[in-house]
TrEMBL record:
InterPro entries on file: Nitroreductase (IPR029479), Nitroreductase-like (IPR000415)
MF term (GO), any: oxidoreductase activity
Name used for this protein in its record: Nitroreductase domain-containing protein
Chain coiled-coil ranges: none
Family: Belongs to the nitroreductase family.
Organism, scientific name: Hyphomonas beringensis
Keywords: Flavoprotein, FMN, Oxidoreductase
Pfam families per the UniProt record, alphabetical: Nitroreductase
Cofactor(s) needed for function: FMN
Residues annotated as domain Nitroreductase: 18-207
Signal peptide from the UniProt entry: none
Amino acid sequence: MTHPESPDQTAMTATSLIRNRYSVRAFSSAPVPEDTIREVVDIARLAPSNSNTQPWHLAIVMGEARERLEGRVFEFMRNGGKPHPTFPPGGAGLTGPYKDRQYDCAFRYYDTMGIARSDMEGRQRLLERNWKFFGAPHAAFLSMPKSMHRANAIDLGIFLQSLMLLFSERGIATCPQGALAAFPDLVREVVTIPEDNAIMCGLSFGYEAEGEQINTVRMPREPLGKILSFAT
């Protein structure tokens, strides 16, 4: 299957890219050309950062390396291994409306996939799709120096958003995943990451699989009035 980049996609504005992008959780196995990946990263590296520190590093697995990593993660879990991210996971410390939104996000996927909220095995299987990269042929791991703090993670977020929008512009789907930071030692066995860095998150990417129900899920956003304040 080919996935040509249409003129409409290459002409998309920042507004349309942001309005129309969504996280894909079922990918085609068709690989993205390496030249396209390099082009995207080469542009994304121009993202701004605090004092131009550019703290990001991107490590990408694909092909045999991707298959090997998936196999090692599931072997580790079958043998009783538990997630052990270097940085606290994104769900840590959530309370109030933030916890409510996290639950709502999960339940939207359960409901779409016909998984009862009491079906713990079904929920676990859906969770484990994270470490299969949702079938994506490529997985990227974003890391930054361990010595840095939360404020520096903002720079990684800017870099990550740049990557996602550039991929979207080229008709390539993405899914940012905190879960991909869960097994840093296994990732390091497969791909080179600077010794002093720690993985913050991952990004699965590729072409969206056609006709997959899970890809119909869309997440709501808070209204403008709840997130914006002015003083004059």
